[in-house]
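[09:14] KT: can someone run the structure on this one? pasting the chain below
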Amino acid sequence: MRIIKTKAPIDVEYLQEYFSTEEPSIIFEIMYYDSDIKGKVLLNYLSNLDIKSKINFYQTSQEEKAEMLREYMLSPNLIDCEELEHALTYIVLKYNNCNVDDLYSLSLLTLENTEKFISENIDTLRNITDFIESLPLVSMSYVPALKDTVEVELKNYEIMEDENILGKNVINLLNNFLTFQLYEKSGARKRYFKHFSEEYIFDGKNLYSWMLEKDVPLLVFVQGIASGVQPS
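[09:31] RB: done, structure tokens below
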């Protein structure tokens, strides 16, 4: 895989080379400080291109990093960016008082600015936490043999109808096994995020299809238990 360091927008010649093969062999590393588009505009640009990219935050201020992380967290578009995915994972874990002592390398922000980011976005982080902690039940709902059990349990949940309560990139946190530390915690509000759990909003897929495609461990675990296969 060849990495091309570039500013955004990406030169047309590079894009033509990228899209010239069925299996792209290029990853674009976006140099954020040098880019002509940033923040929400850059995320929309990358989402529309639907390319795998890295974002290099060299010489980028803490304020710009926090802005970019906030836009990623709230974006209605799915963005495939490992740096932002890892940074948001770190923030969510720290918000939930998980042990992140060995995970600081994932963060884009200093410790002081991490605390500031959490305090300024606490409602969104609470929603993200509640969504992730609802996923075992959501995963069970995709197993026909467990549907009756789920319907009974859902009576204990508050049904969240708001389509804008979360950004779509929250599901990218499921790609990281570290997120599963949240299931060791207790006390989350029981809330079912109907729009995000049922609708086809993830690049034309519903949550089940997306989790199946990504081979998300939680879905594999629940389906294994339902079929009588014990986890190894």
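[09:33] KT: thanks! The two ends are 33 Å apart (CA to CA).
[09:34] RB: yep, looked fine to me
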